[in-house]
Amino acid sequence: MNNFELYNPVNYIFGQGQIAKLSELTPKNTKILLAYGxxxxxxxxxxxxxxxxxxxxxxxxxxxIEPNPRYETLMKAVEIIRAQNIGFILAVGGGSVIDGVKFIxxxxxxxxxxxxxxxxxxxxxxxxxxxxxxxxxxLPATGSEMNSGxxxxxxxxxxxxxxxGSALFPKFSIVDPTVIASLPKRQLQNGVVDAFTxxxxxxxxxxxxxxxxxxxxxxxxxTLIEIGPEVVExxxxxxxxxxxxxxxxxxxxxxxxxxxxxxxATHMIGHELTALYEIDHARTLAIIGPNLYRxxxxxxxxxxxxxxxxxxxxxxxxxxxxxxxxxxxxAFFHLMGMKTRISENAQNIENTADFIVKRxxxxxxxxxxxxQNITPDKVREIVEMSY
Length: 387
What we know:
Elements: E1 11-14, H1 22-25, E2 32-35, H2 40-43, H3 46-53, E3 59-62, H4 71-84, E4 88-94, H5 95-107, H6 115-119, E5 133-139, E6 150-154, E7 159-163, E8 172-175, H7 185-203, H8 211-233, H9 238-251, H10 265-277, H11 281-295, H12 297-311, H13 318-335, H14 352-363, H15 376-385
Parallel strand pairs: 1-8, 2-3, 2-4, 4-5, 5-8
Antiparallel strand pairs: 6-7
Helix pairs in contact: 4-5, 7-8, 7-9, 7-11, 8-9, 10-11, 11-12, 11-13, 11-15, 12-13, 14-15
């Protein structure tokens, strides 16, 4: 097992009716920025619960944070916080809102060009320079409620880039599984596949000695396979909803990546498809992931075999199990409503591989994956196979 440090200070508050605890968690005598997205919180009752819990607080509202939050939009919130001396941010929404708030938190006191936070992938480690924030989760998928990473899109240049650091953990996150009852089926499908692929990025690498991390990862995968199709159809079932929400958090709260090699190339390529074509994040992962496994088959074969036998209960030769495991994954994505080709999700895609490879080369991203063997040529092959 590799050396590691595990630090996660998030006060994670799970269950029905927990939004009422906001008044105990949010700092008193501090002006609050209430940040949210497109307005779903008004339809599902979450807004009313939040405002009721924070009765008496001085609140400034900032709505309109997009799916795949835009740098340009978030900078408007940064200016509001600076101008009005706001001391705490409450993110109410899914991963996009929470990611956006992480950027806002970091950017308020950043002295340079705030776009450099993304372009230079700056890690923030000093909490004193970031505005503290908490979250109320409304859409499980990204695990952003219990980690310190974020992804933000610069619309002007069609770039989807990351930021993070130990200073960007939420102070608290309230997670009430009942709020998923009003989500559209597409968002529930996306959430299951997003969480599933998060696990795969940390698990499907090569055999190692971190036995417990593998078993936890496999447990999350098997749970998502078991409940995914059902929770999409029955989101009011609390057993299904609560296990889905907890699986999504556990998929990316840092635990299963400790002491193990990780990949993340599927995400890096997938982010480009979202930036270029506005394809839902989870759907880009369903497009790219299986083809990355095919192109990198020889170096992932051992772990694919373990995955196939333990998660899908497959039998046969190593080669047979590994190949069948990829097909099982694709079939699961299809069952979850994913269309696993770029051409099924976007038009005029002929130059996609050239564009992505050129962009990666310009950024110096010449070696990705757990073995640093996903070169630009491999990226091209993966993307072209995904057309």
